[in-house]
Specification:
The complex is a heterodimer of chains A (210) and B (205). By secondary structure, chain A is an all-alpha fold. Helices cover 89% and strands 0% of the residues of chain A. Chain A has helices at residues 4-21, 24-54, 58-64, 66-85, 89-115, 120-148, 152-177, 182-209. Chain A is globular. The mean pLDDT of chain A is 86. Chain B is an all-alpha fold and 205 residues long. Classes of the chains: A mainly alpha (210), B mainly alpha (205).
Chain lengths: 210, 205
């Protein structure tokens, strides 16, 4: 059995100390990472609860419940930050990325403590695959928040639509990486391919649009 | 077996449509094509999820929230597309048919609720009602240009085929090639292609 609360306490402690000591951008970034880790912890509780209520097995939960819960929970810290502080675009996108990084990091640490750390190749694939997947999902929603719509109601409906989009993307990723062999490799490569596609084709255009 | 084939066919068609829309969005930096590519992309992701689940788990999704979410998103993006190419303040139509369409969506939802879930059918009714109203009001508005009415016609065709598909799934069951559901789904897949030339015309004007 893995006590994820204990792991969380152990990882959050140095971050909390650093948050107290740092100022401005550094403090904000670490706060987002911590928020991401906290969200991951809470997602695990909510997913387990919903799985129990729905009465489905672990695989079904991983394909149908976890993506919905995780993506919704991941949006909450950013939604709170946006509503309270009304930040600039750059800060929103960077913050969402940091929340996603915190989320993926905590999830990977829990994975390590549950399944061991002997197979480096598999861990690398897991690290890059899951990490890239969470970042891609977070950034898609963040970009929708600021780049696509001007009116508040359009932005709300648009973010709902983008959230639906990333939930499905996440669920497809979960189905593929739960398989073995060729399918696992394809599934792990998809998020990283999306990141590379963004960096090569879209990032220069986004930069020129600012 | 035939369900997997029909899903695969739809995925191939949507993949072609998505690639065309993404390429044009990238080439022309056009918001219209971006919205269309989001519509195709969301529909495609929902279909891929459904097919993968069917292949790897040997059954259709038990809770089916994920695919539905993706299809909701597709409807939202299609609605945004129609609003974008023809903003509501420019629509002068007072067509009774357009105003009755949300009622039609709600009545159909009541029928589907007898066999399916309540919440998802209500969400579909709301979204499809909006889309039907948007497409019918533009189609019946004489002040709209021909390309905009073409897009509205393509959207209406998609909506009506979707309703025919849902109704067929309530009446006929089974994996037989004689099941109308299969043929309507093939028609729906082909009708996705209609939006590409219609949108092209709308962008050009």
């Amino acid at each position: 059995m893995t006590y994820i609360e204990n792991i969380y306490a152990c990882l959050a402690a140095p971050l909390l100390v650093a948050i107290l000591c740092m100022r401005r951008e550094g403090r904000r970034s670490l706060l987002f990472v911590l928020a991401g880790m906290t969200t991951c912890l809470l997602s695990a509780y909510v997913s387990t609860f919903v799985t129990g209520i729905a009465g489905v097995d672990r695989a079904t939960a991983s394909f149908e419940i976890t993506p919905v819960v995780e993506e919704l929970m991941k949006l909450l810290p950013m939604a709170f930050f946006l509503l309270i502080f009304e930040p600039e675009r750059e800060i929103t996108i960077g913050g969402t990325m940091m929340v996603s990084v915190g989320f993926a990091t905590f999830e990977n640490v829990c994975f390590l403590s549950s399944y061991g750390s002997s197979d480096l190749l598999r861990l690398l694939v897991r690290g890059f695959g899951t990490g890239a997947m969470h970042v891609v999902c977070g950034v898609v929603v963040a970009m929708g928040l600021y780049f696509l719509w001007n009116q508040t109601w359009l932005r709300t409906v648009g973010v709902f639509a983008l959230l639906c989009f990333v939930i499905t993307f996440h669920a497809i990723f979960n189905i593929l990486v739960s398989q073995s062999g060729f399918v696992f490799w394809i599934g792990s490569a998809i998020p990283l391919t999306v990141v590379l596609f963004y960096l090569i084709f879209l990032a220069p255009r986004v930069a020129s649009a600012r | 077996m035939i369900e997997s084939f029909e899903n695969t066919f739809q995925i191939v068609v949507l993949l072609i449509c998505t690639n065309i829309a993404v390429f044009r969005a990238w080439k022309y930096k056009s918001r219209t094509w971006t919205l269309l590519s989001f519509f195709y992309g969301c529909f495609l992701l929902g279909d891929i999820y459904w097919l993968l689940y069917l292949v790897f788990m040997g059954q259709t999704p038990q809770i089916s929230v994920v695919s539905d979410l993706s299809w909701y998103a597709a409807i939202v993006f299609l609605y945004f597309l129609i609003r974008h190419i023809s903003p509501p303040e420019q629509v002068k139509s007072r067509s009774l048919l357009a105003w009755l369409s949300p009622g039609f969506a709600f009545v159909m939802a009541l029928y589907y609720m007898q066999r399916g879930e309540i919440v998802s059918n209500l969400i579909y009714a709301g979204l499809m009602g909006l889309l039907l109203h948007a497409s019918l009001s533009r189609l019946t508005d004489k002040g709209q240009t021909a390309p905009i009415r073409m897009v509205a016609g393509a959207v209406l065709t998609l909506c009506l085929l979707e309703y025919a598909l849902w109704t067929a799934s309530c009446i006929w069951e089974g994996d037989s090639p004689l099941n109308p559901y299969i043929w309507i789904d093939f028609l729906l897949s082909i009708s996705f292609l209609l939006l590409i030339p219609a949108t092209q015309k709308a962008v050009e004007t």
